[in-house]
Each structure stands twice: as C-alpha cells, then as structure tokens.
Amino acid sequence: MEAATGESLLDRTVPWVGLAARLIVGGVWLVAGGLKVSDLRSSIRAVQVYELLPNSLAEFVGIVLPLVEVGIGLLLIAGLATQPAAVVSALLLVAFIVGIGSAWARGLQIDCGCFGGGGQLGEGEKPQYLAEILRDIGLLALTGLLVWRPRTPFSADRILFKTK
C-alpha cells in the first residue's frame, strides 16, 4: 500500500522504528558506559576475569571501553554519525557475545560486567549467560537496522546533511 507521496508502508515505518532503535541502543550504551566510568577499577576487573587478554591490555580495555560506550551512546542518541556509531556498536556487541559465550563454554562463573560491577560470582550465584547473549543479540538486531537505514527522525544527521 502506497501513500499519496508514493512511499510504501515500509518506507514510512522504518525511520520511526530506527528512531526507537537509536534511542534504545544509545541509551543502553550511555548507561552501561556511565556506570563503568564511575568505577574504573571494577571495569578493569570485569575485563580481566574473562581471561582472554593479557593483564596490561585488559587494563587498557577496562579504562577505554566505558569512554567508547558513552561516546557511542551520545552519538546514537543525538543521531550524529549514526551509521559509523552503529557499525562500532555492532562490532562491540559481537565481541561481547563472543566473550560471554567463551566464558560460558569454559565454565567461568563470572558477572558479565555489562552494566558495571563484574568479577567472580559469589557463592550460590549463577551466571546469566543465556539472558546476556539474547539481550546482546536483540541490541545487535536494532544496531543492524541503524547500519542499514541510519537516517531517522529528530537526528543531527538529518539536520546537517539536509536529508528527509
């Protein structure tokens, strides 16, 4: 079905779904990074317990990752450089899915550290690997939409590049 403008229902709907995706994914990155920035020691520990990187590199990642997450969140919420921010978001989400899957496969008993905290789980606590992976797959799907169709309503990209 096409409107008087000649746009299909998909063409009229996708930008609004993209706006929701941009705000959801951007909000998640902003919260996740913001919680880690306030406690960089925990962020470093969260990276180290995955046992995937040498300690010096894990320390670097633990410090830089929260800043990258906050930056991606701000870019997505503003709708500025949406497609590049979505590509970086997708790459991080794939890395997180692989990291969580690796921890699960190796039987590690850790908190993912996705929203601060992180580290070894306490006695009687169970990892939530499946839920964490499913959450990240959902965020990856939303991010994929933004890579495919980055122009959304109420975005800095639309204003700067004067696209409809």
UniProtKB/TrEMBL annotation:
It is a multi-pass membrane protein. InterPro entries: Methylamine_util_MauE. The keyword Transmembrane helix applies. Residues 15-148 form the Methylamine utilisation protein MauE domain. GO terms for cellular component: membrane. It is found in: Membrane. GO terms for biological process: methylamine metabolic process. Keywords: Membrane, Transmembrane, Transmembrane helix. The chain crosses the membrane at residues 16-35, 56-80, 86-105. This is Methylamine utilization protein MauE. It comes from Stackebrandtia albiflava. It holds the Pfam family MauE. It comes from the Bacteria.
